[in-house]
Amino acid sequence: MHRQLLSHLAHRDHPIAAPITAAALERLLRRARLPADARVLDLGCGEAEWIIRALELHPKATVDGVDVSEAALAAAAEHAAARGVSDRLRLHHTTAADFTGPEPYDLVLCVGATHAFGGLTGSLQAMRRHLRPAGRALVGEGFWETTPSPETLALLDAGLDEYADLAGTVERAEHAGYATVHAHTSTRAEWDEYEWSWTGSLTDWALDHPGSDGDAALAAARDHRATWLRGYRDVLGFVTFLLRPV
């Protein structure tokens, strides 16, 4: 199965697509203190839960969502229609790096999608190109809660420099030319809810679809669960920064 379809199926019961609760997501959006007629951009929007909630909080705002997954964008359009915000949402099927907007934005998001720009620093550099001078960036990134073992790094197919610790991650953001005005550090409970949902949703779908696709989905769910439980649980953290360019 294509990786994008696997991700879409795994997130069907957790459209936030990050180890964050709906309440924490809303607090971050409110702390952005957007103007009434805000323009918002999400680079790697998935099913667009973040920007749909932004539209609900700001009835005069308009948003652009960018993603490479057709399945996720189709789901985003359905969610937006069901919640009555379709007229203020524009969805773009393209890579985050290739997107260009006609005007700068008050808020630019990239949560759990920094790989699209080669990591946190590259993402923040790209986000700045879309921001108004007084705009905000909302970016979600992993960090090392504890130093990973060689076995964990092998499971993640990652190097030690893939992430920093939390203090180092703050430094990376600020070295990219931003000031941290707020942040949410995901809890273990948020991580567990996200991972059980990811693996469980994919397993549930696989059992309902016997055959080659079901077998592939079930294998992916089991591999992911093993990597989490035997590898990065309590090792890899997740932080979502609210930043201002300086």
TrEMBL record:
Keywords assigned by UniProt, alphabetized: Methyltransferase, Transferase
Every Methyltransferase type domain range: 41-136
Keyword Methyltransferase: yes
GO MF annotations, alphabetized: methyltransferase activity
Taxonomic source organism: Nonomuraea diastatica
GO biological process, one term: methylation
Protein name: Class I SAM-dependent methyltransferase
InterPro entries in alphabetical order: CFA/CMAS, Methyltransf_12, SAM-dependent_MTases_sf
